[in-house]
Amino acid sequence: MRLLLVEDDRMIGEGLRAALRLEGFAVDWVRDVAAAQATLASERFDLVLLDLGLPPGGGAAATDPTADGLTVLRAMRARQDNTPVIVLTARDGAGERVKGLDSGADDYIVKPFELDELNARIRAVMRRHSGRGQALLSFGGVTLDPATRQVSLNGQPVVLSARELAVLEALLQRPGALLSRAQLEDRLYGWGEEIESNAVSVYIHQLRRKLGADFIQNVRGVGYYVGAAKTEGT
Ligand code: CA
């Protein structure tokens, strides 16, 4: 899962990015309104963690010195960008929370917070957003519970690393859909993280070893998918 973290506080940002990466998320981090707007206009994320108290950014070109996190959120919703947003705020007044929710936030969390609570809220928001009405991702005897991050094969638990889980989650979200190596790398790495050139192959290999050689199919040079093998050339 790819997250955009919008947070101007350096310590909080660095801490959150490191912690969420350990959870297996690919995390990109921007620190002001202008950078958030530019990033959201050009890239797709599974979830945005949005601080409300943010500098406008944009240097001398800043058009609105009063712009803050709510500006980012309202602009997203105005252009029908329905990416889930969890507002992070130090302002614990009820008024700020209401404004955030009224502006289209899916949830909020008041700083300081425990990482466990943030993770639980991320899972809850993703579950609601998936619109499946059920928490489990399942295909061909393999079941992944995003809430507990547990995987089973024919009812037997399977232990996966955070990154193996991230690859499997991406594939199970859309059975039958081809995901390219680059799309899978996107789910595994944030900006500035060094991408090991064969990482995706390694995780696919591990997943096949643990879940069965046929569980993940690949189309040479195109990508990977879970599902029945497609007949090439037809
Ligand atoms: Ca702030």
Q: What would you note in describing this structure?
A:
Helix content is 39%, strand content 20%. With 234 residues, it is of the alpha/beta class. It has 2 domains: 2-130, Response regulator (Rossmann fold, 3-Layer(aba) Sandwich), CATH 3.40.50; 137-225, Winged helix-like DNA-binding domain superfamily/Winged helix DNA-binding domain (Arc Repressor Mutant, subunit A, Orthogonal Bundle), CATH 1.10.10. A hairpin with a 2-residue loop joins strand 6 and strand 7 (142-145). Bound molecules: calcium ion. Calcium ion binds next to loops.
CATH level 4 superfamily of the largest domain: Response regulator
Judged by helices, strands and strand pairing, the structural class is alpha/beta
What best-fitting shape do the alpha-carbon axes yield? elongated
Summed over residues and divided by their number, the pLDDT gives a mean of 87
- The tally of beta strands, per DSSP, is 11
Approximate helicity band: 25-40%
Main CATH class of the largest domain: Alpha Beta
Secondary structure: elements and pairs:
Blueprint: E1 2-6, H1 10-22, E2 26-30, H2 33-42, E3 47-51, H3 69-78, E4 85-89, H4 94-102, E5 107-110, H5 115-130, E6 137-139, E7 142-145, E8 150-153, E9 156-158, H6 162-173, H7 181-188, H8 199-211, E10 216-219, E11 223-226
Parallel strand pairs: 1-2, 1-3, 3-4, 4-5
Antiparallel strand pairs: 6-7, 7-8, 8-9, 10-11
Helix pairs in contact: 2-3, 6-8
